[in-house]
């Protein structure tokens, strides 16, 4: 099948979170199944500054987008580990900025251009997609565009669209005037009229209304977002479209995240020979200047420090844990000031036990997953979550809140039966987290049980090869063969 895949993040070109991983791994997995996948993303400043091989594919074109005239050219790169072409929309006026996402007044225009450019590039190349696969709000206008402003072009006659929701907490909601500013004034009647009457428009809602199918990144999250508690105002629309809403768990990239051949680890290891794990811990503690304390568990956190991730519970639970138990903690992440201040303060107060690495570092993320004994991920909500799966295959049992993809991948450890792969608390409160932390530290002391628990995680299969067939089945359902 021919697939046009639009994403605001594709690793290694630009990544701020899990979307970047999926934006690379899913196209790669589809291509490995023989599909013709073309990926379109913005050419941010960091893409140009990165060490990527880029070539000019399409010379500049100018689009009238509402009152703006936007010029862009198209560069081409190849997705590492595949032959998948990545088309980079180079428009310095919109993308030559320090960050991928901004609070700037033209954020709607920045991503509207991605939608326009994706379809225009397909036209330039004569690429007739069977599937237009959009991801999150940033590409939520494309399904509508394909059905309206591009409908005259027979290239898109057979095109069916899929919108994947990676996080419903970000909807791309702008003042209603944005409909004209993004160049869709002529099809303003297609937008949700009550929303417009309330003075706003939403990229995500538009995508939900016009995509032929909607997916989200875990079965539990697919159910949760249909409830008022988790739907962030869109649950009613999702219930109305539940016949075409599917939960497909994300996979992990087993080339990138595999402890046996991870180039970031000084000591590779595997379920069959986990001995390297302890050496990685030694190496990390040395690098961090923390004392080597055999028998004392090291907790790891690698995360965006955002409200979603649930670290508010740590304000109470972690100081209590450090009072009662002998543990060490390493935190890698950046984000909201209050969480940065909390972990910074904890590290200052407990210099022999806690390190806070306030940055984004791919090599450290890998080393922390490998070196820690336990991984902490108390998310309030979690559409899928990748880090808990990484930590499972790296022999680092995760401590998680039972929500979204965490509920689908982490099973509570039961020392009586030897079943389970981590520590799960049901209620999002400090008591729940404290209980789970206590249970985890206790389990760590039981050497035999611990080895079993760790082994259960390391032997799980979370690769894309199983997941990709679910997307393939969906694509096929949407595109009946022509007679
Ligand atoms: P989300 O997409 O909500 O951020 P996920 O668990 O799905 O959460 O994916 C997070 C991804 O971002 C993982 O690949 C994780 O390793 C990475 N990540 C998050 N914070 C950092 C950081 N500070 N340094 C390196 N990688 C990070």
Descriptive notes:
With 483 residues, the chain is α/β, with parallel strands linked by helices. It folds into two domains: 2-251 and 465-478, Rossmann fold (3-Layer(aba) Sandwich); 275-461, Rossmann fold (3-Layer(aba) Sandwich). It has 19 helices and 17 strands. It has helices at 18-32, 45-49, 92-95, 107-125, 142-147, 178-181, 193-197, 203-210, 219-224, 235-240, 275-288, 314-324, 337-349, 362-371, 387-393, 404-409, 430-445, 447-458, 464-478; strands at residues 2-6, 36-42, 55-65, 68-78, 85-90, 131-135, 160-165, 173-175, 200-202, 213-216, 245-247, 298-305, 328-335, 354-357, 374-377, 398-401, 423-425. Strands 3-4-5-2-1-6-7-10-11 form a nine-stranded mixed β-sheet, with helices on both faces. The protein has a six-stranded parallel β-sheet with strand order 14-13-12-15-16-17, sandwiched between helices. Strand 6 (131-135), helix 5 (142-147) and strand 7 (160-165) form a beta-alpha-beta unit. Helix 11 (275-288) packs across helix 14 (362-371). The longest helix is centred in the N-terminal third of the chain and has 19 residues, at 107-125. The two termini are 16 Å apart. Bound molecules: adenosine-5'-diphosphate. The site of adenosine-5'-diphosphate has 17 residues, from helix 1, strand 12, strand 13 and helix 14.
Descriptors for this entry?
38% helix, six-stranded parallel sheet, Rossmann fold, alpha/beta, 483 residues, 19 helices, binds adenosine-5'-diphosphate, nine-stranded mixed sheet
């Amino acid at each position: 099948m021919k697939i046009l895949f639009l994403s605001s993040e594709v690793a290694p070109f630009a990544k701020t979170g899990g979307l970047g991983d999926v934006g690379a791994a899913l196209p790669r997995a589809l291509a490995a199944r023989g599909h013709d996948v073309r990926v379109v993303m913005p050419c941010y400043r960091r893409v140009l500054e990165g060490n990527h091989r880029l070539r000019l594919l399409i010379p500049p074109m100018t689009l009238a987008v509402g009152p703006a005239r936007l010029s862009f050219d198209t560069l081409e790169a190849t997705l590492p580990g595949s032959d998948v072409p990545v088309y980079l929309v180079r428009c310095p006026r919109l993308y030559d900025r320090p960050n991928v996402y901004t609070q700037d007044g033209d954020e709607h225009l920045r991503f509207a251009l991605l939608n326009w450019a994706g379809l225009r590039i397909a036209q330039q190349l004569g690429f007739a997609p069977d599937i237009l696969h959009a991801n999150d709000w940033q590409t939520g206008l494309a399904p509508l565009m394909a059905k309206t402003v591009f409908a005259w072009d027979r290239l898109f006659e057979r095109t069916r669209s899929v919108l994947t929701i990676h996080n419903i907490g970000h909807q791309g909601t702008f003042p209603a005037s944005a409909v004209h500013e993004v160049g869709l004034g002529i099809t303003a009647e297609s937008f949700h009229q009550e929303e417009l009457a309330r003075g706003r428009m939403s990229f995500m809602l538009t995508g939900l209304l016009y995509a032929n199918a909607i997916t989200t990144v875990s079965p539990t999250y697919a159910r949760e977002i249909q409830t008022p508690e988790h739907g962030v105002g869109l649950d009613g629309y999702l219930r109305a479209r539940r016949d075409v809403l599917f939960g497909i768990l994300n996979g992990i990239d087993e080339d990138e995240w595999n402890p046996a051949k991870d180039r970031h680890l000084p000591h590779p290891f595997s379920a069959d020979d986990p001995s390297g794990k302890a050496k990685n811990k030694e190496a990390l503690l040395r690098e961090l200047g923390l004392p080597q304390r055999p028998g004392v568990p090291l907790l790891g956190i690698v995360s965006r420090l955002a409200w979603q991730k649930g670290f508010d519970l740590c304000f109470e639970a972690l100081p209590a844990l450090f009072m009662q138990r002998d543990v060490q903690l390493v935190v890698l992440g950046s984000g909201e000031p209050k969480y940065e201040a909390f972990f910074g303060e904890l590290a200052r107060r407990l210099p022999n036990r806690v390190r806070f690495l306030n940055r984004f570092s791919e090599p450290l993320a890998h080393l922390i997953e490998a070196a820690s004994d336990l991984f902490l991920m108390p998310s309030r909500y979690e559409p899928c979550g990748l880090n808990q799966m990484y930590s499972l295959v790296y022999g680092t049992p995760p401590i998680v809140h039972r929500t979204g993809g965490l509920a689908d991948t982490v099973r509570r450890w039961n020392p009586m039966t030897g079943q389970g792969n981590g520590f799960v608390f049901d209620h999002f409160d400090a008591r729940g987290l404290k209980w789970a932390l206590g249970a985890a530290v206790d389990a760590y002391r039981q050497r035999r049980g611990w080895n079993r628990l760790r082994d259960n995680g390391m032997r799980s299969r979370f690769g894309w090869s199983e997941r990709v067939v679910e997307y393939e089945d969906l694509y096929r359902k949407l595109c009946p063969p022509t007679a």
